[in-house]
From TrEMBL, chains A, B, C, D, E, F, G, H, I, J, K, L:
Residues 18-153 form the Ferritin/DPS domain. It comes from Streptomyces lavendofoliae. Pfam families: Ferritin. Belongs to the Dps family. GO terms for molecular function: ferric iron binding. This is DNA starvation/stationary phase protection protein. It comes from the Bacteria.
Length: 161, 161, 161, 161, 161, 161, 161, 161, 161, 161, 161, 161
């Protein structure tokens, strides 16, 4: 017998539970990736990017908590352990060592674009089964897309719009 | 002639007005029930539950205000008077006198589950007529489901997951 | 055997318990009435009265908590449930629908005057049995009389002093 | 090649971009109109309306920023320049000189009603193409409809409900 | 030998000292007059004017302190005693008893206009002898003229602009 | 017909009204006296006493507001005008010009002792007629007696305890 | 000749001085006892009780300061030294070593009940001689009785109400 | 008959009124221009300039309010409507679309230099007619010149000092 | 040539760099483990442990940042990526699914004891090579040992001290 | 079996436990002594010393908590009961009654010098057994030595440097 | 070609630049002198003067920043290096070693009087060339003259006014 | 006879006193150098470096105060006068005039590296004589090394890691 009685049917719960678990992993890894770059970035834009990355970390941490607690609230146990994150994240591994500022920006653009793509799929799949979870995914996506814009706006590509 | 010109058609307004009035009653009674338990709970977990209940009260009061003011904004006069709450609430009456902590948790689980069920219906009925009101109902439901998880997680049933 | 050992004798406790229970009901209903008017008031003075009423709500909520917790502290279980409030309040029922601003002021004057009268009796009856409870009732009455002055000062009657 | 890679298809982007640009103009002009009335209102209700208008300004400024940054995040450049606002706003021009308080209320009711109507259309058109942008438009509309209620509640018409 | 060595010549000090002492008296009495009206005002606009008057009190108290301490800083002992205020103020005595709201506004307009007239003379006389004191008088006058506008904007006269 | 309906009988009201009016005058004058000394004190202890006096001012201003608003709440119009303060205060007039720090302390001790004596009489006379007003007078007296202790503790007399 | 001139007669001062000195000792020892348990409590309810005890400490420290400064304000020198506290407290000595959570609750119930009993006597004895001191004792007692309720509500005895 | 009685002569008022109206337009347009660039800037310095621009917006909004309310306080009705801003601003129109960071800096340098030139003329013309208004224009100019320095310090030209 | 010139010799840097990298991994994994338990804990002590775990998360996150930035400051690039954490942590893997409260406490005791053991070794090895890094490790260890005490104090074992 | 498993060996634990228990007693008694002087000091410097002593109290209270909780974290039960403090403190007993300001300063110098001497021994004895505890003792000593300087700087002896 | 285009003519810029550079040096040295005395003062008034000096430091630091940034804003590079301060300050060198409190006050009076004299000259010379810079110098002088009064009020000379 | 009795032996005091005096000079000059660059930096990275430098200033000022007060607390009078700083600093003199951003970064790297080298020597020499002072030097060094990393990370050299 389950600990938390879900307000959703089993079928809906399966879809929503997977969406939330996926979003949790993406958000946790995004926070780890952003911290990794935050610590290792170098170059003339060091300070600006160093500070900007901590805002990504704050966003990712806050939403990862929302995703995990939403799963628990629906009766699905979330899994945000290091090994699970390492094995199931879709973000490309960040290289070790110092990271040039231009490269740092590109790493973040790539990571955010991948995660946003997956989030938009989750928004679609949760629409019917649970508009409440969908609303939380929408809020997370809005924040990620804002961060993605800002990194793109300062990437090499934007240098010649 | 009405005081506030509604942005909704009459048919939509009827549906949405009823949803908001119902949500208002549920939220007000939830705040009164939570306070009643807050004052009368006893047992080893007294302090923890006493504090947790005030967070339910805060949630319920804040959303009841949102529901009532949303009704007014649509031109429907809200009714949150004691007699209306007493006669139309769906929450089971709380017994008088001291309440053991285990029982307090169960009272809150029961009250929250009933209210959540009704809120999910309101989310559905308001989807087409007024996505703005629906959004407020979704936010309220998300908060209630989080509270419901927490009380279930500490209920007797969760003791043997 | 009672949960909380009262510092008062049984006779004193009966008097004080009734005073606190009565004050609790009055304070809770005052908060519900003030909210009802807060949501439904209309007229040129809408904004001013709308804001003023939330100050009454804050006062009433804060003191209702003090009254209920004081009862518990003396070993008397407080009862602030919707049905109890609805059946034992002395405040006249507020009409449904929009409320003209002048009428809103008058409703509050009437409600406050009734409650103040009952509070002053409670101050008297608790004087000997429990000066600690009396002190809390005095503080509550001082706040109510300040609100009563302000509504009277802006009522129709004050328009021709 | 565009600066910001949009997560939307070109067709969806066109619809959503127009909705956001329109909402931006409406929000910026609403902030300028509310300030104009804030500075020029006179009459017995001067102070109350003067203060209320600054809350409209705060709402309008905050959401105009959200609309513009959302457009940028989608890869569409927003245009909130004075000349664009002046030429494409749907709000009727405010007369110069002192504005009587009753008239001030009416100006705000009219401006809000016009803007709300357009916002509701934008909510509808963005529903399918981009639920994320739609969510931001819903939040903006909820705030505007609350302001609209308050001005209507204190307008001449509400004086005889 | 004086306690504080003035940076001004004796002639300049005499002019500036008188200006500051006069400004001190006006500011102290303005604070007492505004409080008197704050306590005794009645009528439909009671709350709005009651709150507005406390902002005048805050302004007057803050600047009276600046004026007095500026006098001390120049080596002139300030005199803000009740008897000195009563005998040398230029503000017309406020009547005792309740004050109708319209009348309250007019009392404040009259008091502010009188004080502003005297402040403008002080700005002129201190220009050459001490631009530092003049700067403080300018700041005080700017605040008073803002209050004067607000009371005039809500006075009977403004009702038919 | 009076603006504010008093909860007290006419006889009680007369006693309580006089006590509150007297306390108002004492509190207002105490604030003016303390400011006068605050600006004119000199001597090695200048800074300490200068700061201490602003705490007396804060106390006096806060309680004078309570006294006046309590009178209004009972239906008695308070009078805190400069001329009334000057003519009815019991505090000895402060000399003009610089005030030596030892003398400043003595002025405050004398002023506080006189006011405290009158406050204690008011506590007695209001006991039966209005325990609510009495409670406010008790709170004021407690604050004044704390200030009185502090000034006595640093007066010349305390130098040889 | 005394440092601080007491507003009380010698007879009254003796009674009130003893009450305040007694209350000071009780409050200081309560703060030390609560800290001792705060540091040594163990068991499943460790965290909850650990936190709750710091609220008792805060209450006891704040009121002990009020009691001591009130004594000084009346001209009686307070004595809150460790040796005086140790020799004159009425609270039973706490055992050394780890304290089980149930036992911790019982220790606090016992300590609070003893102190409350003595405080109620002090309220009675100070009623006539000094209503100002009595008011401070009443406020202290109200806080202690609230803490006592909370510990009783979670004690073993409350487990079977 | 005018709503607000001006403390200035008609001739002085004309000069000062024009200066304030001009300053209002410049400040409002500066806020719109800075926001436009804030939203559309791209390039490696995106984030730094994006943040810096919001400080210009804050400065411009705050002073535009001061200018407009100063005009009202003198009895001149301010005009800050979009159409008036668009037609009478002296700031060169900003191009639409993305703006390279270097170009963004230059746009702000140009806009600030133009506005500062006009402000310095206003400081001169208001010197005699109204030192109070002049003081507000001086404060505004000081802030603008600080912003102008910062943008120049990071412009292309400063790259080879 | 290295980006950051280390103030340490190569030999010392190797020792200190390894200590900091190890401490970083432990701190990051501790934050992930604590969050995992925070989301999945159930049982009567749910709320208390849920809250306590977020304090561990806050501690671990703050110190992980200090460790990583200290490594960078010494010229050693930190590695806090999910895969590195997963492969090199010394904390035992947490089971998936709901976690009973008693078990949750034990998981935290075990994790903290392991990490503390490794931290104490790092304190020793860094003593000579770099007292600055050692100081940061000492501060981290002090915080961990405080958390370890608290979880042990509420573990099953403490139930029978 | 002990409640808290110590990270130290038994021998080290004995040394460190005694150091922490001694530091706890000194810190608690310092807080009581400083409060005693805070309440009883008289003389021209009353206010300055009265305030300064509360900073000593805050320091002592904060560090006493750190010492006691550090002991618990190591598995040693702290003892801060009044009787233990009274019997094992090294601070000379403070005389009862009023304390002249010069004498108050000397009492604090003496108390601080004694405690500092003992703390420096504890820093030495804990260096090897537990650098974590030593670090906490160092921080406490730094604060005490700062307070000791300040009291010495204003003592009679410093009057003729 | 200059980095920052000055809004002033070359002739005016020379005068204003010298005034600002001089004010910068005076403000920086005042902050260093006040800190020197802050650290070395001894005597019965140690604490009072120690605290007062940090307010001078705060004033001097804040204005030195304004002066330097104003110079930069006008296109003149400010010079606040230790060697420049040491060689061009007008403040007499402070002796090393402990400073008796009376002497500390005199040092500050002397330093402030010298600096104020120079500031008043700068106010005069900048009046025509740049009223904006003059306004900043006036604000600085007002603050310095307030500090100068306070130190004089507590100097030996003020002891016999 | 010295003002402050040192807890150190004369030999230890000499070593520690010199270390603290040296650290004081370095910290004060670092604050002046950082401000000088803060005011004169130009180039594309102006804003980022301008802000970063104020964080160095805050760090340097805070620690210079700690160093000086620590010296006083040990009985050694600190010397932080401009002439002493100018003559004994080890930081290379900063050139006058505008400073290109790249050069600004290099100046800070150089200054920090020099100061850190000296601080590390002071940490070593104070280890035995006074672990308390050493702890303060360690904290200062940790902050400086963090700043040094950040400037190196954005220096030209880091551009090609």
């Amino acid at each position: 017998m389950s600990v938390v009685k879900s307000p959703l049917s089993d079928a809906d719960l399966k879809v929503v539970g997977e969406a939330l678990q996926g979003a949790l992993i993406d958000a946790v890894d995004l926070s780890l990736v952003a911290k990794q770059v935050h610590w290792n970035v170098v170059g003339p834009r060091f300070r600006s990017i160093h500070l900007q990355l901590d805002e990504v970390v704050a966003t990712a941490r806050q939403h990862s908590d929302v995703m995990a607690e939403r799963a628990s609230a629906l009766g699905v146990t979330p899994d945000g352990r290091a090994s699970t994150v390492a094995s199931s994240t879709a973000i490309k591994n960040v290289p070790t060592g110092w990271i040039k500022d231009d490269e740092a920006v590109q790493i973040m653009v790539d990571a955010l674009v991948v995660v946003i793509g997956r989030m938009r799929e989750r928004i679609e799949t949760t629409d019917k089964p649970d508009p409440v979870s969908q609303d939380l995914l929408i809020a997370l996506t809005a924040d990620l897309e804002k961060h993605a814009w800002m990194f793109q706006a300062e990437s090499r590509q934007a240098d010649n719009p």
